[in-house]
Amino acid sequence: MKQFVALVVMAIVVAACGESVVSADFEVTATTQAAAPSSTAVTTTVASSARSLALSEADIVTYIATVEDALAGTAYEGEALAFPEVFVATGVLFCNQLEAGQSPDLVLTQYIESLTGASVDAAPLDDLDMAGGVLGAGVVTLCPNHMTLLTGSG
Known about the structure:
about 150 residues; 8 helices
């Protein structure tokens, strides 16, 4: 059920932001099945994301491992490994928003409000940790050109 919720939340975030997450051939779909997506679907989705960002398989593996490290000890531990397509799509969304000129604070605020329906101040700590971990991992591995936005250095 948690995996289904993650897929639905991703679809809501995509719809709320009004942006294409990765490319025209990438879709986040929610089903009523609680089962994990097939490995073929995961491979296809991740490969689709990699083409749109010109990422290598190693980049994606590094990103997912970095997200998992950030989520260790939270309610989201293991989720990036279980559903890499959701986390890759979220990381790509965050990078696209940064590329469009949004600040990291705005990106996180919009995401948390969409995810929880609450303000950042009222959001559960695990949700804040997850969002920050996904943004940080995305910047480090998917769009390192935005590193100065997180570090404040030039």
